[in-house]
Amino acid sequence: MAGRFTPRPTRTTVRGGEAAVPASVPHPATAPAAVPHPATAPRTRTWVPGAPTDLGLVLDPLRRGPADPAFRITSDGSVWRTARTPQGPGTLRVAQRGEAVQAEAWGPGADWLLSQLPSLMGALDDPAAFEPRHRIVAHAHHHRPGLRLTRTGLVLESLIPSILEQKVTTDEAYRAWRLLLHTYGTPAPGPTGPLRLRVMPDPRTWSLIPSWEWHRAGVDNKRASTILRAVKVARRLEEAAAMNPPEARARLELVPGIGPWTSAETVQRSNGAADAVTTGDLHLPGIVGYALAGNRDADDAEMLRLLAPYEEQGQRHRAARLILLSGRTPARRQPKMRRTNIANW
Question: Where is this region: Disordered (predicted)?
C-alpha cells in the first residue's frame, strides 16, 4: 500500500507493497476554445510498488486504439494519458525505471492524478486472491507476474467510449472516439503538442454536440442518445467509482441504453473490478470456450459455466483477461458484423 502523499513540485518517493486525424471546423456553439496550455514545470512523483508491476499490461486497457487522442506510448516506453479529473483537466506521463514508477503531471488535475497513481498502477488489486484452475490460465498467470488491474477512479472516461463500442466494429468505435475528441476535446496540458493529445469534453460540451456531428463521426442515434442521457447525470455516475462493483454496475444500468456489457467494460477500468466478466460480447464467449473446452461456438451461458471456478474467488474478469493474453484464440472466421459507416449515408 502506498504511504501518505502530499503533492509537491519536487520529486518524492513513496514505497508501497497513427495516422493523424484532421480536425474539422467545430460547431461554434459547442466547440471548446483551442487555446494551448503552457508547458509549465510538471508536478512529479515516484512510487515503488510492493510487487512486480508491468506498466504496459496495467494501462493498456485504457487505450482506445493506436491513435487514441487521450493515450499515447512514446518510443522511450513512457505512457501518456489525459483525464478530466474532479479538479479539472490533466495530463499524466508514467514511466517505469527499474522497480520504480516515475510520474509527471500537468494542468489543474495534476495533483489529483498523482494522488491516484498507486491505484492507477494496480495497488488496490489483489492478485493473491486468484488461484488458477486451468492449465492455460496458470501458464499465462505464471508468465505475466506484473499484471495488475488498473483503477482509474473516473467513470465517464471509460463509459463514453464503451457506449461508442456498442454493436459496431472496434475500428468504427475508435474512429468515432478520435473524431469527437479532436473536434470537441481540449488541448492537453503540458508539453503535449507533438503528441496531439486531447482531454475529453466535459459533460456540458458532450450534451451540446449537434446531431450532424454525431452522424459525421459514424455514431447512430441510439448510441448518441445514450451518451446524452449519461452526461445529464454525470455527477451521479461518477459517484459509482467509489462503490463496490455490483453497486456501481447497478447505478450505471439505471441509464437507458447502458446494459451489462457496457457496465462491465466500464467498471473493469474505473473500479478495478476483478469479477466483472463481460457478457454480451461478440467474441469473448468463443475465445473462452475455445481456450478452456475447445468450443469456439460457446455462448454467454457456456462461458459463465466455464468461468464458474473463478466466481467464488471474485476473479472471473482476471481469468478472462489471462485467457486473452495467452494467445490461444480460435482461427478467425468471416466477420459476423458488417462494417457500416453511417457518415456515408
Answer: 1-42
232 half-sphere exposure, CB direction, 13 A CA radius: 9
Its pTM stands at: 0.86
Q: Does 28 fall in a domain?
A: no
Does residue 103 sit within a domain? yes
Instruction: Give the tens place of pLDDT for each residue, 93-142.
Output: 999 999 999 999 999 999 999 999 999 999 999 999 999 999 999 999 99
Long-range Cβ pairs for the range 85-92 (8 Å, 24+): 85/109, 85/112, 85/113, 85/154, 86/112, 86/238, 87/111, 87/112, 89/186, 89/188, 89/189, 89/199, 90/189, 90/199, 91/188, 91/189, 91/190, 91/192, 91/197, 91/199, 92/117, 92/120
Band of pLDDT at residue 40, cut at 50, 70 and 90:
confident
Is 275 in contact with 267 (CB distance < 8 Å)?
no
Write out pLDDT tens, residues 142-185. 999 999 999 999 999 999 999 999 999 999 999 999 999 999 99
* 184/201 Cα distance (integer angstroms): 6
Instruction: Judge whether 302 lies within some domain.
Output: no
70 contact partners, CB below 8 Å, separation of at least 6: 64, 81, 82, 83, 157, 181, 185, 197, 198, 199, 200
Question: How far is the C-alpha of 291 from the C-alpha of 136, rounded, in Å?
Answer: 7
Number of domains composing the chain: 1
Which of 51-65, 139-153, 155-169, 319-333 shows the lowest mean pLDDT across its residues? 319-333
CA dist., res. 246 & res. 271, Å (int): 10
Half-sphere exposure of 343 (CA within 13 A, CB side): 12
Q: Which domain holds residue 152?
A: 41-270
Average confidence score pLDDT of the chain: 89
d(CA 124, CA 323): 22
pLDDT above 50 (res 321): yes
Q: What is the pLDDT of residue 131?
A: 98
In a domain, 280, yes or no: no
SS percent in the chain: helix, strand, coil, step 5? 40, 10, 45
CATH of the domain at 182: 1.10.340.30
